[in-house]
Amino acid sequence: MLTADPAGIPSASGLVDLRVTPARAAALLAGLRTARSVDLGWRQLCDLELLATGACSPLTGFMTRGDYDSVCAHMRLAHGTLWPMPITLDVNEDLASALTRGDMLALRDAEGVTLAALTVEDIWRADLAAEAEALHGTSGRDPAGVAALPDSTRPWRVGGPVEVLQLPIHHAFRRRWRTPAELRAALAARGWTRVIAFQASGPMHRAERELTLRAARDLDASVLIHPAVGLVPPDDPDFYMLVRCWEHMLATYPDGVADLNLVPLAPRMAGAREALWRAIVSRNYGCTHVLIPPDHAAPVKSHAPEIGIEAVSARRMMFVPGLDAYLPHDEVPAGQATRDLSPAELRALLENGGEIPDWFSFPSIVRELRHTHPPRSCQGFTVFFTGLSGSGKSTIANALLVRLMQCARRPVTLLDGDIVRKHLSSELGFSKEHRDLNIRRIGYVASEITKAGAVAICCPIAPYDQVRQEVRALIEPHGGFVLTFLATPLEVCEQRDRKGLYAKARAGTIKQFTGISDPYEAPLDAEVAIDTTGISPDDAADRIVAYLRQERYLTDLDEYPNE
Ligand code: PPS
After folding, report:
1. pLDDT score for 112
2. Cα 371 to the center of its chain, rounded Å
3. Which of 468, 501, 518, 532 to mutate to test the pocket of ligand 1 (most atoms within 8 A of CB)?
4. Atom of ligand 1 lying closest to residue 498 CA
5. DSSP-derived pairing of the beta strands 479-486 and 380-387
6. Is the pLDDT of residue 196 over 60?
7. pLDDT grade, residue 11 (50/70/90)?
8. Residue 516 alpha carbon to ligand 1 centre in Å
9. Using CA atoms, how far apart are residues 529 and 523, in angstroms rounded to an integer?
């Protein structure tokens, strides 16, 4: 247990630092040349950094089986210290079976740089259902939290002490990644003896600012915006948006009241255990108090004396227009109207380009949100055709391409089947496996185009539902996905037989031909479905444009009057 010094901040004397001296690092590196290694995933890198810097004090490595079992069963390490969260290194079965007690294991980043050495003390197979039960209170079903994790843990675990050669490097927002020791020193230099952690989980707005300022006033303390950013890897634009929003928020606080420090902690969505774990981490960074959502405040409060940080319930703040002020919901005078904006309402306002009221947020933060979540009329999108050979995909795609390029508001790329097969998939044939790979490649390119705010038009046959859905899931987070099913019947396609392929397929010269000797799964989730039997390519393109307008991806600005 860390003890509180008289000034209030828990004493740094118990803070673990797993970084070794340069001489030891050189010796370790030499020894690791012949050792087995593991490339850490994003969650594991976060765990390693927390361990390395002492943010997880008193842990000195990845947990051994004794600690793990005890933490799962009793929320305590084997020797009795309160610790709510398993911090284990999961590996694949091959590595687990190749290791023996006493081995050194090199822990490397994604580029293969050795960051740390683990001396193997334990190798075991965890019971994932029992672990889920302990953490989430459920077994047999997949709690939302587990599904939301960046990468779920594998059953094989390796435990033992860790020696750190170098910390994972943060290239962005470097001054916001102070280690617990560095932050404690900074707090002490400012004379801050009472510090409340606010573990922001999204952009902060006026309600959160009022909440923290009120708590700071009530407790005569300073505020540390202390978000866990381990769920958003640094290649995710949301990470940059979030940190910029917190920076803007920090600038709105009165001088000398608040600070911001990022925590490389990958959330487990484990309710009360998680709240307790994060409270301990905030304590290790030097905080004396932590604001916690009311549903999890009780368990943290009950353990407060033991962990050395006090939990403060975060009350819901409401804007009271009559008083032009924010008040906790249970302090709003009777008869006063209140205003609030739910996350769904905020999302809808951003999507539609609606006005976000001043009472809700600050212009600098709203600008960031608008930049990262532009209205649909400024987002990229993909029109993904699917249909049999001869159903009209390429002809209609070309008509649509011209219609969109006429306005020149967004760059447009046509990923035609032939072009893709020539440039991206020249080695592929028409087996299911190859077709799926072809579609995945198209989906990847289209998602990058969509992410960049441009338009991708794709027109493969894409006969299989499962991979079409994968592509949808890849693209939708970045913009629109319009699955356009050309439902032209096989007889019509075969009658057209522009390339003479159906005749060859019937004759058996072409094998695995879609519709003849290979399946086509008609989509049930198409945004637009067109049977081109009796409709011109221009009219078909009109139908797609009408859909894009209806969904607000296109506006009047995108339309050039053709008539
Ligand atoms: S897939 O299934 O989506 O990967 O196919 P795709 O990349 O769109 O390629 C389809 C075009 O390849 C020609 N072709 C065949 N199609 C289907 N089955 C077989 N066995 C086959 N062999 C060659 C055909 O010309 C398709 O073009 P379109 O434009 O659809 O007629």
Report:
1. 92
2. 18
3. 501
4. 31
5. parallel
6. yes
7. low
8. 12
9. 9
- pLDDT tens, 381-424? 999 999 999 999 999 999 999 999 987 689 999 998 888 999 99
**Mean pLDDT over each residue of the chain, to the nearest integer:** 92
DSSP state string for 169-236? P--SSGGG---HHHHHHHHHHTT---EEEE---S---HHHHHHHHHHHHHHT-EEEE--B-TTS-TTS
pLDDT of 82 strictly over 90: yes
Q: What is the pLDDT at residue 60?
A: 96
Residue 275, CA distances (Å) to 83, 301, 303, 313, 374 in order: 11, 11, 11, 12, 33
Q: How far apart are CA 11 and CA 468, in angstroms?
A: 56
When pLDDT is cut at 50, 70 and 90, the band that residue 161 belongs to is very high
Q: Which residue, judged by its Cα, is nearest atom 20 of ligand 1?
A: 513
Q: For the chain, give the number of residues.
A: 563
pLDDT at residue number 151: 53
Ligand 1 center to 473 CA (angstroms) = 24
Instruction: Report which of 506, 412, 509 is spatially closest to residue 455, judged by C-alpha positions.
Output: 412
Interval between CA 389 and ligand 1 midpoint (Å): 6
Task: Give exposure, 170-197, as e/b (b: 16+ Cβ within 10 Å).
Answer: eeebeebbbbbbebbeebeeeebbbbbb
C-alpha to C-alpha distance for 310 and 303, rounded to whole angstroms: 9
User: What pLDDT is attached to residue 142?
Assistant: 47
Q: Which pLDDT does position 6 carry in this prediction?
A: 37
pLDDT, position 2: 43
Q: Does ligand 1 have an atom closer than 6 angstroms to the CB of 170?
A: no
Atom of ligand 1 nearest to the CA of 517: 20
Q: What is the pLDDT of residues 535-550, one digit of tens each?
A: 999 999 999 999 999 9
Nearest protein CA to atom 22 of ligand 1, as residue: 513
Sole residue written with tokens 């947990």: 63
Sign of CA dihedral 504, 509, 513, 516: positive
Give yes or no for residue 515 CB within 6 A of ligand 1.
no
Looking at residue 508, what DSSP letter applies?
T
Flag whether pLDDT at 478 surpasses 60. Answer: yes
Nearest CA to ligand 1 atom 15: 513
CA of 346 relative to ligand 1 center, distance in Å: 44
238 exposed, middle or buried (CB, 10 Å; 0-12, 13-18, 19+)? middle
Q: Checking DSSP bridges between strand 156-164 and strand 89-90, what pairing results, if any?
A: antiparallel
Mean predicted confidence (pLDDT) in 330-343: 95
